[in-house]
Amino acid sequence: MSRKESGGGRGRGSRNGAWRSPSLVQSFRNAWNGFTWIWHTEANMRLHFAAATLVLAIAWWLEAAPWQWAILVLVSGLVILLEWVNTAIEGAVDLATNDHRPQAGRVKDVAAGAVLVAAAVAAATGVIVLGPELPRLPGVVLAVAERTPWRLAPLALVLYFVASSVAVRRTAARP
Fold first, then answer.
1. Number of domains present in the structure of the chain
2. Are 57 and 138 in a shared domain?
3. What is the DSSP string of the chain?
4. Closest to 41 (Cα-Cα) out of 9, 88, 101
5. Is the domain of 61 the same as that of 144?
6. Are residues 61 and 128 in the same domain?
7. 29: Cβ contacts below 8 Å, ≥ 6 apart
8. What is the mean pLDDT of the chain?
9. Looking at the structure, do residues 128 and 166 belong to the same domain, yes or no?
10. Rounded (10°) angle between helices 66-96 and 24-41
11. Largest CA distance in the chain
């Protein structure tokens, strides 16, 4: 029996047909499969990773305090988490109906709206938390480039995430 036929690998039936939960190793394997699937199929996930990487790099360059790091990691993680939930909701709606139904579209729109609001709140939080130090950023980045250019490496990740997001969108747009 394939993974798809057995309910996506979420537990296995015993000899008497009763369902049992997967092992811890299998649970992690399933979670990793979910991560890799969303990474390969959802362009917005890569954009959220790009934004989070950029914000955390700025915090690093500005030598943010631990409380600032905690807040920035939390709001960045919440946006990424909501993108995953949004993707799961969209998939569940698609499984529930093959027909074009206005209510199904509204459910998807509300889930996407939650991600949009979370991203706006995260952006505002980043500006509030780092705001007093942001005017120093251009000078700090130039100093980093001059003295420790390896600390600019996160910018390469940001560019990769953005470029790969474009590639995922192009692949999804093909017939």
1. 2
2. yes
3. --TTTTTTTS-EE-TTS-EEPPPHHHHHHHHHHHHHHHHHH-HHHHHHHHHHHHHHHHHHHTT--HHHHHHHHHHHHHHHHHHHHHHHHHHHHHHH-SS--HHHHHHHHHHHHHHHHHHHHHHHHHHHHHGGGGGGHHHHHHHHHHH-GGGGHHHHHHHHHHHHHHHHHHHHH--
4. 88
5. yes
6. yes
7. 9
8. 85
9. yes
10. 80
11. 68
- Contact between 121 and 72 under an 8 Å Cβ cutoff? The reply is no
Are both 24 and 86 inside the same structural domain? no
H or E stretch including 146?
helix 137-147
- Token pair of 42, please? 């959802």
Residue 5: CB atoms within 10 Å: 7
**Rounded CA gap, 135 and 131, in Å?**
8
Query: What's the pLDDT tens digit per position in 78-94?
Result: 999 999 999 999 989 98
The answer on 47 and 34 residing in a single domain is: no
Q: pTM for this structure?
A: 0.76
Question: Containing domain of residue 21, as a range?
Answer: 1-41
Instruction: Indicate which CATH number applies to the domain containing 74.
Output: 1.10.287.3610
- Polymer length in residues for the chain: 175
The better pLDDT of the pair 2, 76 is held by 76
- The token pair at 52 is 């989070």
User: Do 131 and 63 fall into the same domain?
Assistant: yes
Catalytic residues: 83
